[in-house]
Amino acid sequence: MSDDVDIIEVTETLPLDAWHRAHGARMVEFASYHMPIQYEGIMAEHLWVRESAGLFDVSHMGQLHLSGDGVDEALETLVPADIKSLAVGRMRYSLLLADNGGILDDLMITRWEHGLYLVVNGAVKYDDIAHLREGLADAITINHLDDCALLALQGPKAFDVLSRHATGAYPLETLVFMSGGQFEIGGHEAWISRSGYTGEDGFEISIAADVAEAVADLLCSNAEVKPIGLGARDSLRLEAGLPLYGHDLDPDTTPIAADLGFALSKRRREEGGFPGAEFILAERAAGAALKRVGLLIDSKQPVREGAAVVDAGGVEVGRVTSGGFAPSVGGAIAMAYVPAASAVPGTIVTLAQRGKTHTGTVTTMPFIPHRYVR
Amino acid sequence: MSRYFTEDHEWIDVDGDIGTVGITDYAQGQLGDIVFVDVPEEGKELAKGDEAAVVESVKAASDVYSPVSGTVIEGNTALGDVPALVNEDPEGEGWFFKLTLGDTSDLDGMMDEIAYEAFVAKL
Lengths: 374, 123
Fold this sequence. Notes:
The structure holds two protein chains of two kinds.
Chain A: H1 17-22, E1 26-30, E2 33-38, H2 42-51, E3 53-57, E4 62-67, H3 71-76, E5 91-97, E6 103-111, E7 116-120, H4 125-135, E8 141-144, E9 148-154, H5 158-165, E10 166-168, E11 180-185, E12 188-193, E13 202-208, H6 212-220, E14 225-227, H7 230-239, H8 266-271, H9 277-286, E15 290-297, E16 308-310, E17 316-326, E18 331-339, E19 348-353, E20 356-363
Parallel strand pairs in A: 3-14
Antiparallel strand pairs in A: 1-2, 3-9, 4-7, 4-8, 5-6, 6-7, 9-13, 10-11, 11-12, 12-13, 15-18, 15-20, 16-17, 16-19, 17-18, 19-20
Chain B: E1 2-5, E2 10-15, E3 18-23, H1 25-31, E4 34-38, E5 45-46, E6 51-57, E7 61-65, E8 70-75, H2 78-81, H3 85-88, E9 97-101, H4 113-121
Antiparallel strand pairs in B: 1-2, 2-3, 3-9, 4-6, 5-8, 6-7, 8-9
């Protein structure tokens, strides 16, 4: 007899699966979904986003809606953001925290006219939903908007393109970075926010899954727009200095070590009352032992996730959590956790990867300046 | 001169006891944009199947194995400056290294071009 239960992991398809394949995407498995890693090539796609506009399918991410009396207070028990002061249409970056101060996920929280709209990472969305259900009062309703697709249109020409198609109660240009509103695109209802994860100006567009193909076709009918895969999304966000959950952030990292102190709102720092507050606020005062920094690699060879940061004696003192070739930088860059004493820009650190040592120079992030429209 | 192929997507041209090694067009297509290549130095002794070179694309690092045993006589230094040569001309200017073959029987059982094309078609 055995209590073993066979769990069959099924790779699911997203609303635009056939659309990606028809556009020549190479599909890979990511966060239990078939996702496009690239179309014409990561380098070309990356550079296209920096100079024009790219359409990303990020429908694997979790879109959640929270509602009910006392929803602000309830969510504030799980995140360190000031939710109460969030105005309608404004969004805020925050963190789901464990009781020890570790990061369970990073997320975007937006105030809709009714309730709060959350976007969480695809790979942990079901864990997040369970965590929210356990932590939020029974009076709070959690609605998983799994009949919605999420697109991102990113790049310096994203505004010109989207303004041709988006109509709403007010013009698209009234949206500034980290704000959103209700619009229509090609006659389809869309929640559009001026946000993204590339460091460029751009928009994220939440639409019903069954109109995703029509909206993607409409946006790609503009000469400025090409579909962009996950590969370029990763190199773009790395150049923008933005951490990726499951790589640069995990339950063993804290907001202070991750250099995300800005996510601790002033009122919440003063009042506490979020998970791990005592530890996190003490760490904020004293400094974390390890800190997330950016590194310019001194050779052309990429130093990637999993490489060790080593001291003069070759002992591991930190780790590289993301790394690769940065097309707009023209060289290899990385994010790493290094001892606090080595976190000062200009410091040279030694890295070990597959039996070979490399050096990297601690650099202020972002590697490529953000071009948000505020 | 004859060209042989491995299931790991290396090719080797053999002329007398000199072999020239690279990766196939299929391999470069799978790897995508190549940003770094580390080729072996002259004099390096390689056994068949040894990790001989490293090729890094934007996505990932991959090892290139020596399809035969032998002594390296030249690494393609042009790849240090222009790693994208591997994308542009993988079975020509984008060669990785040349070596003297220790034992030509290492070539036994490798695929010819027609067999390799059939092999790739099934992947």
